[in-house]
Structure prediction request, 640 residues.
Amino acid sequence: MAAVPRAVLALSGGVGGAKLALGLADALAPGELHVLANTGDDFRHLGLDICPDIDTLLYTLSGRANESLGWGLEGETWQAMAALEELGGEAWFRLGDRDLATHLWRTDQLRSGSRLSTLTAALASRLGVASHIHPMSDDPVRTVVHTDRGELPFQRYFVRDQCEPVVTGFSFDGISAARPNREVMGLLRQKAFGAVVVCPSNPFVSVDPILQLPGLWPALRDSPAPVVVVSPIVAGLALKGPAAKMMSELGLGVSAVDVARHYCRRYPRLMDCFVIDESDAILAADIRQLGVDVAVTRTVMKSRADKQGLARFILQWSGN
Amino acid sequence: MAAVPRAVLALSGGVGGAKLALGLADALAPGELHVLANTGDDFRHLGLDICPDIDTLLYTLSGRANESLGWGLEGETWQAMAALEELGGEAWFRLGDRDLATHLWRTDQLRSGSRLSTLTAALASRLGVASHIHPMSDDPVRTVVHTDRGELPFQRYFVRDQCEPVVTGFSFDGISAARPNREVMGLLRQKAFGAVVVCPSNPFVSVDPILQLPGLWPALRDSPAPVVVVSPIVAGLALKGPAAKMMSELGLGVSAVDVARHYCRRYPRLMDCFVIDESDAILAADIRQLGVDVAVTRTVMKSRADKQGLARFILQWSGN
Prediction:
């Protein structure tokens, strides 16, 4: 009998997903974690190509995340932004001085023709990250939020307008022409993963852009690795970000059941297990009705031990 | 009899020229100083369009110049550069955090189709500079230094290689297709200037690129305003930068006489007066032999009073 592969693939957006990714990185041997990162939030701003989710993963997995802000780099300074405001420039997207180096370097290298995946690997290596961070695609995909104020590029909705507009739907510009990350697709073909974990990221703007890349979710469904999804909704609330507000505005219920239903409807037979928080244990039966296993544990990650605990629970469930 | 126009046009490179520009700005009424800035030093670095001489003028005339460094902004911080070095990026050209905002804003606006002259005026206005700073051209001109190590883009020679290569000559890429600044050409046609001052900037890499723009120096020669050139060489030394080293490597003598000869040969009948330092008073007769007036004063500018004193001397000489 072949040994179960130890490598794990995690699908992640930004902050919430990066927390579990950090737990998984701690729980696995160095290099065993592969993270497939959403790039639908990427945008060009002040001439810079910015990849917020990749950077959150890089900064979190390298121990540089700013815990108090909840985003960006620890010990960050803001001189460039202060000077930009003096010049009357657009300062609604806060770029820290050290963070700017990442964007400058990457933008320059992208314009010279490098692939985003190559550059992400180089950044991870420079920052001492042993895990593999893969952009979901080297081709541009741009999340557009459809709202009562019209269609808004994601960061305009998310940062500039602080998620205030009422959401009516989403689209992902460029997705039909985008190829999923070639390294990850290759590893899937090689059956290299022992588990696939969908982090507790926003289903609509963090996970859907990844899963809807042509060919990606069928490849995950058809791989022997179990697909474990962690609910981003706990006790009817989003732990971070606008997921609950979006679900409500879209006319969905706001509970872990509704998240599970979203994944089951859009991606039939993809999910093997749905992980919910112990405070939602009562919902387990309803979720099982959808035809998926349910695992109940503490999913709220405050401490490093919380992150590791949830990661170990998932790995144990999936036989790793 | 018409009143002598009070406006003054100064031709300037970076640090040395900006000192006299500051003195002229102090000595004139607000808005009477127009500076035509060298852009041959401009370059693209890390994807940013950087205009070192324009920025030195902006920072100096707005009182933001870093006096101790001799370049850049006062109170500057260097977090972005430190982070860039960690990422293995090119950090030989030191971009301060606040300075970065200037480059980001300008680069973004240039890519959106704005003219450099419009953007320079906007920056001056934002920084509270009453003088008019004009790029010598809105078209790209790039100074190339011919050396014993081959042809080097100016900043590679000047900053990265610290002027070490032996100079054999210069060329200005793009200059034959570049049009001189249209506002300044318009003002020259209107005979708006009471004096033209060539600041004590490097003749080869700061002043020549300006004067060699098609049609510019004949327009200066034919304007009624006297053209006053301040020697950047004092007692056989360049006060700042590689002018003396260049003259020596080019087989020229290294004295104020040799500078005057350079201007007289390349731009016949352009110069009306050559200003030399009192320590070079003995050279006055030799310079008069070239057919130009000579004015002797203290040209070394250490204090603000020095800058104002030299400016007032020049204005007085030229009848302003």
Remarks:
- The domain at 7-68+117-317 of chain A is CATH 3.40.50.10680 (Rossmann fold).
- The CA atoms of residues 47 and 281 of chain A lie 47 Å apart.
- The longest strand of chain A covers residues 167-173.
- Chain A has 13 helices and 14 strands.
